[in-house]
Amino acid sequence: MKKNLVFVLVCGFLLIYCGAPQEGPKVEAEQPTGADIYYTPLAEAELQKLIKAMPVFKTEVEKLEAELKPGEVGDRLQSVLAYSATLDKQLPGLDAKLRAAGMAWNEFWPAYSKTTLAIGAVMIDSAMFVMQQQMKDQPPQMLEQALSSLEESRTIYKDVPQASRDLVKKYMKDLVTIFEME
Predict the structure, then answer these.
(1) SS3 letters across the chain
(2) How far apart are CA 101 and CA 44, in angstroms?
(3) Do the Cβ atoms of 47 and 163 come closer than 8 Å?
């Protein structure tokens, strides 16, 4: 159940924050804001803090999930995703608990989003590489069809900085553990 919830959250964040940022009025700012912040490079210190704070976040999300009624599977998914962006307001004390773990909510959420986007980008890149290696001896049309479907997914992650991808690769063992990916 816990793995499913974490998987749903990761997929939800990938779906919510994937793609190019929406074009809006040009605002001159030194620091990126809104959707742009998720495409800024992930700092190693930021990722280390996230890894340390993630167990606290998972515990609080599991409490939220436990409060939902057992028969509301569809509603459960919608509820968890709807609460995710505003969990600091939905879960009393979340910010204080995250701060005790070394990362405030306003630092956690962008780091979490940048990390999940970078994980998705690394996974798509890896899948494309493996597919190319496995299908070397297949007819070119088969390879093209398989790669074109992955290429569509890859465009979602085109704005994820290479530095973030490299950092995620460096910490992949820890990330697999905290995100319960297998």
Answers:
(1) CHHHHHHHHHHHHHHHHCCCCCCCCCCCCCCCCHHHHHHCCCCHHHHHHHHHHHHHHHHHHHHHHHHCCCCCHHHHHHHHHHHHCCHHHHCCCHHHHHHHCCCCHHHHHHHHHHHHHHHHHHHHHHHHHHHHHHCCCCCHHHHHHHHHHHHHHHHHCCCCCHHHHHHHHHCHHHHHHHCCCC
(2) 17
(3) no
- Would you state the structure tokens that stand for residue 93, as one six-digit string? 């004390």
Model confidence pLDDT, tens digit, residues 81-129: 455 556 667 677 888 899 999 999 889 989 998 999 999 999 988 887 8
